[in-house]
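From the shared-data thread, chain only:
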Amino acid sequence: MKGLNTTGKLIVFSAPSGSGKTTIVRYLLQQPELDLDFSISATSRDSRGTEVHGEDYYFISAAAFQKHIKNDDFIEWEEVYTNNYYGTLKKEVERIWNLGKHVIFDIDVVGGLNIKNKFPEQTLAIFVQPPSIEEMEKRLRGRKTDSEEKIKERVAKASKELKFAKDFDVILVNDDLEKAQKEAFKLVENFIK
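Structure, as tokens:
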């Protein structure tokens, strides 16, 4: 990509909400031998619960997000829900590569595939699959962060997202978290060698 130092690897974790991808990504970030750093996505949505700007997301207005789109500042972006944008800023990936680390993403399915398509050789795209839609819905309810309407919206979106699993390099079924974390570690370790 023009103007982007492309020496590091890109590790993409995508999944429907409630699949456990964030828990797996957090686990991998705690493994120093993998040399990973988290790509903080930009979003136009408001923060939820204890989310922190510059740590969990870069929270920016929809207008600012649209300006970044016009300036071609994103590696990938999309309007996930109406006026609710998510994207990966080029400067975020550069920041991590400049530290000599590999980039790990906890990202929506379409965003993950967009990165894989732009950097096919450098990207390992892993789809974290919940054991079932029912289990995923149970996990979403257990979080107690979303309204009933939002949960229904996420479950409907998940049914569509599961159809993209086949387009990823690996499908990691998360029915046993400890086992899924070990598998994810091996996959990443082998890819970055």
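The longest helix spans residues 177-192.
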